[in-house]
Amino acid sequence: MKRLRKAVFPVGGLGTRFLPATKAMPKEMLPVVDRPLIQYAVDEAREAGIEQMIFVTGRGKSAIEDHFDIAYELETTMSGRGKSLAILEATRMTPGSVAYVRQQEPMGLGHAVWCARDIVGDEPFAVLLADDFMVGRPGCLKQMVDAYERTGGNIICAQEVADDRTHLYGVITPGARSGRLTEVRGLVEKPAQGTAPSNLAVIGRYILQPEVMGVLASQEKGAGGEIQLTDAMAGMIGNQPFHGLTFDGTRYDCGDKAGYIQANMALALERDDIGPAVRAFGEGLFCRD
Ligand code: UTP
What we know:
The protein is of the alpha/beta class. It is 30% helix and 25% strand. A hairpin with a 2-residue loop joins strand 9 and strand 10. It starts with 5 loop residues before the first strand and ends with a helix. The model has no long low-confidence stretch (mean pLDDT 94).
């Protein structure tokens, strides 16, 4: 079994649910407290042992490249003022550990992943959607890598969702279950309400075998007229092991305004520096009659 070394971060979407905030700024640069979403995802990948980060970007996404680059002016000014640069440590990528590829048109998640095919090559790879913000110890991808070392094949992150929300997700037809692992027998993207095969939805973390790139090459459009990763993954079932892992932790859907605010509230309350002030403010706000 080949070791997992590479991760793809598709950041080419339009982020229309966050307009106008995302008109000139990528959704993935929205901060949860003081770190952008994409930084959390990269840190999660590093913790899982990923060595090469591949960003699939689009127009208007250059802030992401700048974020992971050296900021000479900022760093020189800060150093000159005697300020520590430790806070910027995690934003530094070592040479060769990062690659950027452009998705010229946002044709869907499957298309974004396919754009990274030459850099991924003939290796298994992870895909992380930064707007699915996962909080757990160990992190979500590390939990998946631990499972992958036992099962091999393909692993997707799975989460139970309410009946009235299945039409918003890729949904799993489940097979045998063993602890947090569920065998994936089928996958359907955004099933019409009342037709979902289960409540087990696909969340934005994947470990995939390189053969999925061959399936994506057909460029077939699915739900919403987009090239769907779910459809390509469905084409792999039966040929390779395929499992869903229910993550031990909390997921915040930061592609959605309510989920994003919840993530900020939860993480702010946990912080030693601002937690007490935020808690006091919240108590005053919620206890008002
Ligand atoms: P979403 O559908 O959640 O993101 O895609 P979006 O299209 O940017 O957001 P809304 O719905 O308009 O608000 C899930 C992930 O896939 C990426 C997005 O950047 C996001 O991380 N994506 C989506 C691409 O990279 N390219 C695409 O063509 C579509």
